[in-house]
Backbone:
C-alpha cells in the first residue's frame, strides 16, 4: 500500500478510473477484448492506431467483426502487427463474446491465442473481476523493488506473481485497475527498459 500511495500521489488523476482507454463506451466490453488481443507482442501506441481505424470504420462491434471480410479486417489492424493471426483471433473472440454473457477465466483460456495475461486483462477491465494483471511492467518494477529490499521471493511463473499480489492486497476490481494503471504509468515514465534509476521514487 505504501507503493500504491506513492504512485497515486504522482499519477492518481490520470488513472482514477483505471488505465484502459476506451473510444466507444457503448461497446466498452468488446472494445477491451479487441484491445487486449491486439496488444499482444506490440506497444499500445500501435494498438491505438489499429483501434482508431476500427472505430473510424464503425467496426468496434462484435457482430460487425464477424461479418467483415477477413482481408479487410487484416488491413485495418495492420498497425498492431501479426495481423493474420490477430484477425482470426478477433473473429473467434467476437463469436465467443456474443454467446457468453458472463464468461469465466477458464473459458477465455480455451480460446486460441488467449493466455493468462490477456484473459486477466479482459476480466479485470471489461468484466470488473478482481484479478491482478501480471504484465512486463509489473514484473520489471516489482523485481527491482524486491531486489532493493533484499527480498528473494523466487517469483518466476505468472501464477506465482499473481499470488504475490492476491495474497498482499484485498481483492477489489476498482482498486486493482487503479494499481495496475499506476504501474503502467510509472514504467512508461521512469521504470523503462533503459530507465534512469536515479529518478526512482522508491
Residues:
Amino acid at each position: 500500500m505504501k507503493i500504491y500511495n506513492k504512485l497515486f500521489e504522482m499519477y492518481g488523476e490520470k488513472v482514477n478510473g483505471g488505465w484502459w482507454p476506451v473510444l466507444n463506451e457503448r461497446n466498452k466490453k468488446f472494445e477491451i477484448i479487441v484491445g487486449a488481443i491486439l496488444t499482444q507482442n506490440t506497444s499500445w501506441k500501435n494498438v491505438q492506431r489499429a483501434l482508431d481505424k476500427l472505430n473510424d470504420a464503425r467496426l468496434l462491434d462484435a457482430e460487425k467483426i464477424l461479418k467483415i471480410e477477413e482481408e479487410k479486417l487484416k488491413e485495418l489492424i495492420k498497425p498492431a502487427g501479426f495481423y493474420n493471426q490477430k484477425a482470426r483471433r478477433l473473429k473467434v473472440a467476437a463469436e465467443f463474446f456474443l454467446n457468453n454473457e458472463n464468461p469465466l477465466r477458464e473459458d477465455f483460456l480455451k480460446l486460441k491465442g488467449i493466455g493468462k495475461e490477456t484473459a486477466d486483462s479482459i476480466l479485470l477491465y471489461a468484466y470488473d473481476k478482481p484479478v491482478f494483471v501480471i504484465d512486463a511492467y509489473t514484473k520489471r518494477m516489482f523485481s527491482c523493488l524486491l531486489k532493493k529490499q533484499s527480498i528473494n521471493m523466487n517469483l518466476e511463473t505468472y501464477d506465482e506473481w499473481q499470488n504475490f499480489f492476491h495474497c498482499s492486497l484485498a481483492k477489489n476490481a476498482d482498486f486493482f485497475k487503479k494499481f495496475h494503471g499506476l504501474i503502467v504509468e510509472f514504467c512508461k515514465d521512469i521504470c523503462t527498459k533503459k530507465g534512469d534509476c536515479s529518478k526512482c521514487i522508491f
In short: Residues 2-17+132-199 form one domain. The chain has eleven helices and no strands. Residues 106 and 158 are 15 Å apart (CA to CA). The chain has two domains: 2-17+132-199, 25-125.
